[in-house]
Amino acid sequence: MLADRDAYIDAFSAFVAASPSSYHAAxxxxxxxxxxxxxxxxxxxxxxxxxxxxxxxxxxxxxxIAWRAGDGVDGASPVRVLGAHxxxxxxxxxxxxxxxxxxxxQAGVEVYGGPLINSWLDRDLGFAGRIVTRDGxxxxxxxxxxxxxxxxxxxxxxxxxxxxxxDRQRHVQPVLAAGAGDVSVLELLAxxxxxxxxxxxAVADPALTNEGPGISxxxxxxxxxxxYDTQYPQRIGARGDLLASPRLDNLSSTFAxxxxxxxxxxxxxxxxVLAAFDHEELGSATRSGASGPFLSDVLDRLRAGLGxxxxxxxxxxARSWCLSADAGHSVHPNYxxxxxxxxxxxxxxGPMLKINANQRYASDAHGAALWRRxxxxxxxxxxxxxxxxxxxxGSTIGPLTATRLGIRTVDVGVPLLSMHSARxxxxxxxxxxxxRVTGSxxxxx
Length: 445
Hints:
about 25% helix, aminopeptidase activity, alpha/beta, hydrolase, Aminopeptidase, metallopeptidase activity, 2 domains, zinc
C-alpha cells in the first residue's frame, strides 16, 4: 500500500469503519498484525527471548504497541517509535443511561474531550466500545444506527443561525425511540456484543461478522461505550482527492504507522515500534495513555529479552527517536485570520512538521533535520505548522513521551479541516504521504 495511494485510502477507510472506538481500533490493529505473522504477547505471562527479525504486539485496553526488530539488534539497539492515539472527542455513555422525557426514550451521555458539539447534531449514531460481563469476560460491542441528537427547529429558535448555544447537559442527550416502551440501552448493547476477547486480542468486529454471544442485558457488569457516526468514509471533492471521515484525528496516524510497520524493513540494529495510545484527548494520564507506563513497560521487557543492562538501555534511549504523529490544522479559507499570517499549511501540501516555542510540540532543530531527511528519502513534500500567537495550540503525546523516556521526539501530522468534528476532512495525498514518510523513518540508518 505504500506504493499505491488509492489502495491505501480504500484500506484506511475500511479501517476507520471497523474502528468506531479506541477498543475496536486496537483490536483491528491486532487482527491485522496477527494475520501478518506478528506474535501476540500477554502482559500477564513471561515473554520469550528477543532476537533479530522478531515481531509482535500487545494490547492494553484501547491501546496497542507493536514492534519489529531489524538485523543485528542487541541490548543497546535504538528504537524508532511512531506514536499516535486511538481515541477521538465525542460522547460516552453514562451509567444508568435509560431515561424518558416528554414521551421520548433517551440515553444519558457525557462529553468526552473537546468535540465540535454542533457537528454531532442530526446524525445517525450508534453505540460502540466494550462491555464486561458479570463473569469478568470482555467483549467488543457495536450497534447499528439507533440514536440521534436532534437539533431544535429554526421555527423555535430564530437566532440559531446567528449564534447556536448548546448546553452540555440538556441539549446533547440522544433520542432512541418515540415512547418509552421497553427500550433499554443495555439490551441494545447486549444485542450488539461480539465474541469474548479473552485469549485473542485479534477478535473481529461483531458488526462485520454478525457473530453474537447470546448474552442478556443482565449479564453486563460494566461498559466503556461511546456514540459513533455510522456514515462510512467517503472520497469527495471536484477531483475526488478529499476524504471526509470520522476519526481522522487520529486514526490517520495509527493506520500510517501500521502500514509502515508491515511494509518497511527496520534499519539494521534498530527496532521499529508503533505505539498507539488511548485517552490523548483527555490528557493521556491513564494506564493506556502516553503519560502512563505502557511504552516504557514494553521497551523494558523487549530489552530484557535481549539481555540489556541499565547502561545498554540508557545508550539505546539516547540514540532513539519518536515521531509523534497527530493531526494538525490546514489553513481554513473561511477563517484565514485564525492562522499564522506567513506559515500557511494547506491540504495537499504534504504532512506537517509541527513547531511551538512553548514546547506544546516536542519538535526542535534536530527533529526538523530528521523530518526533512526522511521526507526527502520518501519523495514526499512537507510543510510546517505554527500557531497564530493569539490562538494557542493544543498539545500531543510528543512532549509526554520525550519527558517520560528522554527520547528525542518530533511532532508531525496530516493537515485537516474541521478537526474534532464528527466528520473531518483531509487530502488523500497527505494521508498516504504520512505512511510513506513513516516507512522511511523506520528504515533510516
